[in-house]
Specification:
The protein is α/β, with parallel strands linked by helices and about 475 residues long. It folds into two domains: about 200 residues, no CATH class; about 220 residues, Spore Coat Polysaccharide Biosynthesis Protein SpsA, Chain A (Alpha-Beta Complex), CATH 3.90.550. It contains 18 helices and seven strands. It has a seven-stranded mixed β-sheet, sandwiched between helices.
């Protein structure tokens, strides 16, 4: 049974690894951003900027200020602060709204009596009173540049365009090894995946922030819904199935803030992993039965199911020991014929994908992270696999907000900026147990004197050692 599961998991990783290599090949041929005609000042459309907030006291003032400084005719610009906060964020929001209202901005706060539907509910509620023909959306930890609308709105001169997405930048990418790792993992999603999908007329998604929607595209696709925890991904696919086209602008960058603790980063990834599978379960059956081109169907499946890689990776980790036991008599020929090709097209393909991105970004610090990327991924796999399984069997769920600290570059926050993770002891015990378990294959290799396998097998316990060390750091550092 263990060997069969290992084969299935490796086959899954190979499929997604080959897909990554395809993205790389296509990415080398993608052109620059599409050209859009400038809009005459007397033809500028009305735009609503929506800022969904929930207990964002450290960044609320910053995002409101940034939104108010966006250049657009004042009589055609509305700013909605969708504030579901229950803490001191309310006072900060009220003060900033009063400040900018006195300076001629059409800005107001919209508060609900409950947090029903979470972010999707807040956006839907704001839409009912929004004046704009277009809606630009920014999360609290983003800082849109003043020329954001001038660079994005012209692309809606094509009446078939329903959404324009811009690239995320990272204010604190060099804060620590963890934020550098996140930047490495997230950047190719935009500079490779979005670019390839857009230029090959395939489906891609609004990322929940740093984008702008045509109002009729939202309404025509059925509006914001909260039956998944990735309302942005869900609406994106419904809109494109309905016939709307999306535009991706790689040259327009909106700076954002990365989580600086392992628990916050893992929580964010769990929500994305769970939500993508929920969306796949909801969207793929109808999409695959549609008359859309086969290329769109294949790429949509690869995109929406990509988080299954975490489950495949964890299965491969758990079944490694029984696999080694059953292959006691393996020789060099079998290694050359089976093991090396499997590695090249599974884990090796992912590593090569990020290597190519790091080389194109020309960041030495990013390149230095590549050796620990496999171990880091192995360490994350158990928690993200659980999220994927939840997404398979549950709809909706609690929207766990990723804490934002209002960091500037590499400034160090104080301990009071954090809350100690509630599940830290349980996560620590799980990682320690897996650390011990993954040492078993290493011991077996040493016993059989198969020295060449030892460095590879050590990657697995290293991953859980990395996670356990960070759990201890977060537990004692945070309040």
């Amino acid at each position: 049974m263990g060997v069969a599961l290992h084969i299935i998991s490796m086959a899954g990783l190979i499929l997604f690894g080959v897909h990554r290599l395809w993205l790389l090949i296509c990415g080398r041929k993608t052109p620059c951003d599409p050209f859009a005609k400038k809009i005459p000042a007397n033809q500028s459309p009305r735009v609503t900027i929506q800022l969904p907030l929930y207990n964002e006291s450290r960044v609320a003032g910053r995002i409101i200020n940034a939104a108010a400084r966006i250049k657009w005719p004042l009589h055609l610009l509305e700013i909605q602060i969708l504030d579901d906060s229950t803490d001191e964020t309310q006072q900060i929001v009220d003060q900033r709204v009063a400040y900018w209202s006195n300076r001629g901005r059409d800005i107001r706060v919209i508060r609900r009596t409950s947090r029903k539907g979470y972010k999707a509910g807040a956006l839907a509620h704001g839409l009912t009173t929004a004046k704009g023909e277009f809606l630009a959306i920014f999360d609290a930890d983003f800082i849109p540049p003043p020329d954001f609308l001038k660079k994005t709105v012209p692309h809606f001169s094509d009446p078939g365009v329903g959404m324009v997405q811009t690239r995320w930048g990272f204010l604190n990418a060099d804060f620590s090894w963890l934020t550098r790792m996140q930047a490495l993992l997230l950047s190719p999603h935009f500079s490779v995946e979005h670019k390839v999908r857009f230029h090959r007329s395939l489906f891609f998604n609004f990322n929940g922030t740093a984008g702008i929607w045509r109002r009729t595209a939202i309404e025509g696709a059925g509006g914001w819904r909260s039956d998944t925890v990735t309302e942005d991904l869900d609406l994106s696919y419904r809109a494109q199935i309905a016939g709307w086209r999306f535009v991706y602008l790689d040259s327009v960058v909106v700076p954002s803030e990365l989580p600086i603790s392992l628990s916050d980063f893992r929580g964010q990834q769990q929500r994305w992993g769970k939500g993508s599978i929920q969306t796949a379960k909801k969207i793929l059956p109808a999409l695959l039965k549609s008359s859309l081109p086969v290329s769109i169907k294949i790429e949509a499946a690869a995109h929406l199911l990509a988080n299954l890689c975490w489950l495949f990776g964890f299965m491969a980790t758990l079944t490694l020991y029984p696999l080694i036991i059953t292959r006691a008599g393996i020789g060099p020929y079998q290694i050359l014929k089976i093991d090396i090709p499997v590695f090249i097209f599974s884990g090796g393909a992912f590593l090569f994908y990020y290597l190519c991105h790091a080389l194109s970004a020309r960041k030495r610090t990013t390149l230095l992270l590549l050796p620990i990327l496999p171990a880091f991924s192995i360490g994350l796999a158990p928690a993200l696999s659980l999220a994927v399984l939840k997404g398979c069997f549950r709809t909706g769920g609690h929207f766990n907000r990723t804490p934002k600290l209002g960091l500037k570059a590499n400034a160090r926050p104080g301990k009071t900026a954090f809350k100690r993770p509630e599940r830290a002891p349980l996560n620590l015990l799980m990682n320690l147990a897996l650390l011990l378990y993954t040492f078993a294959p290493v011991g077996l290799a040493l016993q059989r004197e198969t020295w060449g396998a030892v460095p590879f097998l050590l990657i697995f316990p290293l991953g859980f050692f990395l996670m356990a060390g960070n759990e201890l750091h977060d537990f004692f550092y945070q309040q």
